[in-house]
Design a protein that fits this description.
single chain; about 20% strand; alpha/beta
């Protein structure tokens, strides 16, 4: 399969907004993925989704008629666990996330912060046995209320490091665009005078992990996404060809204001087999 002069051997595919919206298959996506697999191309489903485990994502995709197993899915939480093991081994980690992904955070020492005590919690407690060394921020949702964000702010003031699974500003559901972590992360960074280490897309380490899993070089790989910056241009900076689809969170104004130009722009994932030369 040729795109330009490069032979494509693998495809990295974002899930939300590319294959599905609110876990319902987008038109033509199931058939397109089937064609790509039938052609013998390597496939990795790469997602910043933090509300579900890899196994749960695979189940949801199966219910939407996609052929996918947990081994096909690479998530921001899974890459985050690897980052924490390498850079903060044994650290006490406080997790702020919408959804339970502890199964994919194997080996991470999580501090239980389930109690919703008063606002003094953020400033009073400094016991080395309970105060976290690292704050890990996942996907936004109802859990991102004032008390939780203020508690995180307190930890950061006391010297905790900040790790974010992603910094997406918004995402698309069947109810339209919804705020995501990036909208809150910017405020935390500014207030605490710190900068988060981002482990999911657009982190180069995330793309490196996907390539390593497939055993394919960047120059033989395509990345398909609906986020011009985090999916497409980030992949291109890693040497991977980028394909932007006009579904999901895609907005014409985001493309116009982007920091670069995608290698390819398609109306939807259903058009990818034609780009790869799989259709006449």
């Amino acid at each position: 399969m040729e795109t330009g002069s490069t032979s494509v051997r693998a495809v990295l595919i974002d899930i939300d907004g590319v294959l599905t919206v609110s876990w319902r298959a987008l038109p033509g996506a199931v058939a397109a993925l089937r064609e790509i697999r039938a052609a013998g191309l390597g496939v990795a489903l790469v997602t910043n989704t933090t509300s579900r485990t890899r196994a749960s994502i695979a189940t949801a995709l199966g219910e939407a008629s996609f052929a996918a197993g947990a081994e096909d899915v690479l998530t921001a939480p899974a890459v985050t666990a690897k980052h924490l093991a390498e850079h903060f081994p044994g650290a006490r980690c406080a997790l702020l996330n919408s959804g339970d992904v502890r199964e994919d955070l194997e080996g991470v020492r999580l501090v239980d912060e389930n109690d919703e005590n008063d606002e003094n919690d953020a400033n009073d407690e400094n016991d080395e046995n309970t105060s976290p060394d690292v704050v890990v921020v996942g996907g936004a949702g109802p859990e991102f209320g004032y008390a939780a964000l203020n508690r995180v702010f307190g930890h950061l003031q006391r010297g905790a490091r900040l790790v974010a699974m992603h910094r997406n500003l918004f995402w698309r559901t069947d109810r339209g665009l919804q705020l995501d972590t990036g909208a809150f992360l910017l405020g935390l960074e500014r207030a605490a005078r710190t900068e988060a280490v981002v482990t999911g897309k657009p982190s180069p380490a995330f793309f490196a992990a996907a390539l390593a899993r497939l055993g394919v070089g960047a120059d033989r790989t395509l990345m398909v996404g609906d986020d011009i910056e985090s999916d497409v241009l980030a992949a291109q900076r890693a040497g991977i060809s980028g394909v932007l689809v006009r579904t999901g969170k895609y907005l014409p104004e985001s493309l116009a204001a982007a920091s670069g130009t995608p290698d390819h722009v398609l109306d939807s994932f259903a058009d990818l087999p034609a780009l790869l030369g799989l259709r006449g």
